[in-house]
Structure formats: structure tokens, C-alpha cells
Design a protein that fits this description.
Oligomer: single chain
Strand order of the largest sheet: 1-2-4-3
Largest sheet: 4 strands, mixed
Order of helices and strands: HEHHHEHEEEE
Length: about 170
């Protein structure tokens, strides 16, 4: 009888701890989902908006949820040097388009300085820049040329079914 009582008490204790553990685990999962959704909505938006072979200048850290073709053709250090790292660059919009970027995505916070650089920069007459997404965490601009004489110097091209690369024209 004592053994049965001990087993019963131990079972109650384990059940209580399991419920507590499950509650804490669910809370942690909810916190992670909440954290990721700050950026997830913007990334899902651009995944649906961008066509294959389009490029995104990505000023941010959380890019995991991008489509593989978009992810593989993001900006590289050479793009950063030409576009954003040069703080005195008066042609950020033009340089972005010429380097093949159809979109500029800025995750605010650490990369808020990029947004300030963009907003303070003059847009050329031949380029339409439109803010297509804006929430408290992310802003996305689209870049479209209005002039057939202005072309990008880079495009995203497929190497095979799963690999994409940025290809610069000579």
C-alpha cells in the first residue's frame, strides 16, 4: 500500500512537472515566433512580389526566409562598397539600379542608417522609386527604369535548377 501511495505521489509530481515544462516550452516557442514575425511578414511579401532573376539589396541580418533564388543573388561586399559604404555617394539610387537591384530592403534598427542615407539621396528623373512595404521593422523600395537607355549591369541568372548567381555584364 505504501508503495502504491508513493507511486501515486510520484506520478502527480511528474505530471505537474510535465505540464510546467510544456508550458515553459510553449512560451519559448511563442517568443521565438514573435521575434521572427517582425521580419517574416516583409520577407514573405518580397518572396511573392519579386520575380525570378530579380535582385534585392538587403540591408539587414534576418534573411533566412527569402526564396533560394533571391537569397543567392543578394548584395555582396562589392555592391556594399559601391552603394552604401560610401557615405558621400550622391547616386545611391542610380548605383543600386545599375548594379541590378530591383528592390532595396532595409531592416530598421541596426540598419536604420541605410534608410536615412536613401531618404536623403536624390533620385534620378529616369528612375521610379516607390516604397512598396513599410512597417515598424522593415521598409522595401522598388526600382524601375523609365528610360530604355538606362540598363542594369548585373542580373541574377540560374546556373542549374537550384543554383543562382549574380552575373555582371561587360
Amino acid at each position: 500500500m505504501i508503495l502504491l501511495s508513493m507511486i501515486f505521489v510520484l506520478s502527480l509530481f511528474m505530471l505537474y512537472n510535465f505540464k510546467f515544462y510544456k508550458l515553459m516550452l510553449n512560451k519559448k516557442i511563442e517568443e521565438r515566433i514573435h521575434f521572427l514575425t517582425h521580419y517574416y511578414n516583409a520577407l514573405e511579401f518580397i518572396n511573392h512580389k519579386a520575380d525570378k532573376s530579380e535582385r534585392i539589396y538587403f540591408a539587414g541580418s534576418y534573411r533566412y526566409y527569402l526564396r533560394p533564388d533571391l537569397f543567392q543573388c543578394l548584395n555582396d561586399p562589392g555592391d556594399n562598397a559601391q552603394i552604401i559604404n560610401n557615405a558621400d555617394n550622391p547616386n545611391i539610387w542610380e548605383n543600386s539600379y545599375q548594379r541590378g537591384f530591383n528592390y532595396i530592403l532595409v531592416q530598421k534598427g541596426i540598419y536604420g542608417f541605410v534608410l536615412k542615407s536613401l531618404e536623403g539621396n536624390q533620385k534620378p528623373d529616369w528612375l521610379t522609386v516607390q516604397k512598396i512595404y513599410d512597417d515598424q521593422n522593415t521598409t522595401i523600395f522598388s526600382l524601375v527604369s523609365n528610360d530604355s537607355n538606362h540598363h542594369s549591369q548585373c542580373s541574377c541568372q540560374t546556373k542549374n535548377q537550384k543554383l543562382w548567381e549574380s552575373v555582371y555584364k561587360n
